[in-house]
Amino acid sequence: MPNLEHPAYPAADLLHLESLVPCRESQVSMLLSVFGERQQFSFPSIFIYGHTSSGKTYVMQTLLTTLRLPHVFVNCVEYFTSRLLLEEILIQLQSCSSGTEQSSSVHCDTFNDFVRMFKQTVASRELQNQTLYIVLDRAEQLREMEANILPAFLRLQELTDSNVTVVLLSEIVWELFRPNVGCFEPFTMYFPDYSIGHLQKILSQNHPPEYSADFYAAYINILLGVFYMVCRDLKELRHLAALNFSKYCEPVVRGEANERDTRKLWKNIEPHLKKAMQTVYLREISSSQWERLQHDGGEPGQLKGLSAHTHVELPYYSKFLLIAAYLASYNPVRTDKRFFLKHHGKIRKTNFMKKHEKTSNHLLGPKPFPLDRLLAILYSIVDNRVAPTANIFSQITSLVTLQLLSVVGQNDQLDGPRYKCTVSLDFIRAIAR
User: Fold this and answer.
1) What is the pLDDT of residue 314?
2) pLDDT at res. 384
3) 416's torsion region: left (phi>0), alpha (psi -120 to 50) or beta?
4) CATH code reported for the domain at 316-342+363-432
5) What is the pTM of this model?
6) Lowest mean pLDDT among 55-64, 132-141, 196-205, 366-375
7) Statement: residue 211 has pLDDT above 80
8) Sheet holding 187-190, edge to edge
9) 163 pLDDT above the threshold of 90
10) Which of 117-126, 220-229, 341-350 has the lowest average pLDDT?
11) ∠ CA 159-185-35 to the nearest 5 degrees?
């Protein structure tokens, strides 16, 4: 029995829509109820929010396209000023019903011009008989535009006296949108994250035709067992599934196992999934590089020019500054004399007795340090004499800008600024080499 039912739309279209949006039937059903029939006035504005990769954009595009509803779809990141945004809506609107591209350019400087041109376009394109949907993806960018843009879009139905609904898609909640002066409240709707069962069902639909559905579902189950705790992004999981499936199939291709030997297949794929864990979200290498790496059996760090985290191009003294900052963050002040002075005198034996009783400084995290201590360590580890010139201080500022160092506390303290090193030990080892 189909989950999607609505008297205003053909049953075949709804059945096809249901197959395209798995695990989002309840949200689509709610949207259909809010939309109503084609000629009916819907809510003036709808606000849909949820985490990234929860299906907001895909569901809206699929719903409007499958049911052939007149709509305009604009990404607010691409059209980042109010003028670009309003002009793009008008351009798409002019080709909405005719299906032809608009040859003449549109000039729209203010929202008053937009309302006037919008009413003219709707009348000329005969769009008054059904609801027109304007979908603004990444709508949080509207907060960076003029103060009147967001309230005007929320009341566009009233301003234009037209059957239009504005749909806002965002990753943040409505409370962070609401202006201080107040505005028309939209109908809000939440898209929850996909559960592990939903991800299993969605990813299993992409199984290759040369393998059975059960075999690919078992592979997806193994993949989610490894990555679900660290990655819930459907796009990232789909990329990982496509990237590592050939390695999972190797024992079957070589004839060493059949599709039901789950244990052998797991033993073969486990080390490669552990390597993939190091580059989740980072996209440090391309798919072809990753396949070559799996074939050669190497480590991810062996590719030349692989990672921005291990091959950072910094000026000569910036590298020493970063090493000095790391030493200052993770070594106590009382050890500076022992580490950085040639004639530091005798060391008490009690210090060595306590060394094994203390927690590792790497587990406790970096500690803040003053500027003069950083420069003192720098002079100690650099072979030649370094003068405290403006060049050195500007490089410290550059390291803060690159977020390799962070400023702790206020900058107007009498004892000078304090810093903290934010990079890892592997990063410093790569710089030190």
Assistant:
1) 80
2) 67
3) left
4) 1.10.10
5) 0.69
6) 366-375
7) yes
8) 71-75, 132-137, 164-170, 45-49, 187-190
9) yes
10) 341-350
11) 75
CB within 8 Å of 397: residues ≥ 6 apart: none
* CA distance readout (Å), 105 to 7, 86, 123, 419: 40, 12, 19, 52
Provide the CATH topology of domain 11-190.
Rossmann fold (3.40.50)
Q: Chain-wide mean pLDDT for the chain?
A: 84
For the chain, state the CA radius of gyration. Answer: 30
Burial of 131 (0-12, 13-18, 19+ CB in 10 A): buried
Q: Which two tokens mark 310?
A: 């291990």
Amino acid present at 75: N
Burial class (CB in 10 A: 0-12, 13-18, 19+), 94: buried
Give the percent of the chain with pLDDT over 90.
43
Tell me the C-alpha distance between 56 and 35, whole Å.
16
In angstroms, the Cα distances linking 140 to 102, 122, 173, 321 are 28, 27, 9, 38
CA 258 to chain centre: 38
**Overall average pLDDT of the 67-95 stretch:** 94
- Please provide the DSSP assignment of 77-88 as one string: TTS-SHHHHHHH
Q: Which two tokens stand for residue 249?
A: 């199939």
Query: What number is the average pLDDT over the span 383-397?
Result: 77
Beta strands (DSSP E) in 307-413 are 369-370, 405-408
Q: Where are the domains of the chain?
A: 11-190, 196-308, 316-342+363-432
CB atoms within 10 A of CB 365: 9
